[in-house]
Write a structure and sequence with these properties.
Order of helices and strands: EEEHHEEHHHHHHHHHHH
Number of domains: 2
Helix content: 55-70%
Mean pLDDT: 89
Shape: elongated
CATH topology of the largest domain: Helix Hairpins
CATH architecture of the largest domain: Orthogonal Bundle
Structural class: alpha/beta
Oligomer: single chain
Radius of gyration: 33 Å
Distance between the termini: 80 Å
CATH class of the largest domain: Mainly Alpha
Largest sheet: 5 strands, mixed
Number of strands: 5
Length: 288
Amino acid sequence: MKCYLVPCVAGFIAFNENLDVVDYELFPRRSIISKLLEYEKGLISEEEKIIKRLLKDYGRISIESVHKWKYGKFKGVVLESPNIGGEYLRENLREILKEIGFIEDGEFREFIYEIHKGITLKKLEESLKEQDKLIIQAVNALDDLDDSIGRFVERIREWYSIYFPELDSVKDHEHYVKLIAEHPRREDIIKLKNMPRQSIGAELEEDDIEIIMEFAKAVRSLQLLRRSIEKYIESKMGYLAPNLQDVAGTTLGAKLIAHAGSLKKLAFSPASTIQVMGAEKALFRHLR
């Protein structure tokens, strides 16, 4: 004999070949949302229980699923999606849930609405958790890049000033590094910037200039990477926390999330805690 086992918002319902309800394993009302989400990830206890019961009376169980790996340990289980039982249940869900005593008259629509709303909110919450982690890692990477770029810019300024100290008049670090990466010889920069033709810098060999240029290119690539990460954080913040982005700005807002540990923790933090975020050491030194 064959039966059909169908998952639904209430649990698992089995039908015989005449489409009569022969067994069911229902979720506890308070755990429906978590059980449905758990079911999406794999075999759950309620499904395993009813399969074991049905195998005692039926030689074949048709289950609506495409996940073969879930049912490998059960002989007699066949996967059919959709199957006759599933189509019948979907067409008559309200009546069948009333028949088995899961819902009462008049509550079906509200029940379905609450379940779908709960699942959507739960998935959104999980999604935001992942977005939190991405923003936290990105803003921490930005801090690391700032530290590295700061040290490297200081190094290249000292290094290149041996050859062309007059270029120190260019205060913008990005422009300074770009000039050296693209025009390593001072004669080219003098023409480009209309600078005095005489320099008090030392004469360098070709290989000396070449290695400085390679170093400048590496620093330049880090500067461009920093800009890309900044745009990435701006995009993520616009999706995850647009209000925080408007109030605090992209970078500061992202740093507040990173410091709190997540957007949810930041949202539940009192104003007095947010006020001193990032300045705890200075505050405690003052209190001593």
